[in-house]
Design goal:
alpha+beta, 26% strand, Pemi-like Protein 1, Chain: D, 35% helix, two-stranded antiparallel sheet
Length: 89
């Protein structure tokens, strides 16, 4: 049985990049080219989140849990817009 893992890295303009897997101690790591790190706005020591999608894995520097919390906060503020407006006066 052969398993194929597709890694999708979301950027403004789709450009295909090849990531090389290398041994790091007893683990395996992916070498990410400098240009890709720049486009993702990450650097050594930052975290990337791998989200499984039907097309493969999406690598993103944004924590999906934080995004969900931000969306909930935005919905809350939108729902109570008039209340916040009155409180601000």
């Amino acid at each position: 049985m052969r398993i194929i893992i597709v890694i999708i890295i979301k950027t403004q303009n789709a450009v295909m990049q090849t990531l090389k897997l290398t041994r790091i101690g007893t683990s395996t790591g992916a070498i990410i080219p400098k240009e890709m790190l720049n486009r993702l706005k990450v650097e050594k020591g930052d975290s990337l989140y791998a989200i499984e999608t039907p097309e493969g894995y999406l690598l993103t520097p944004y924590d999906p849990a934080i995004e969900e919390q931000l969306r909930a906060g935005q919905d809350f503020m939108k729902q109570y817009r008039e209340t916040f407006k009155a409180l601000a006066e």
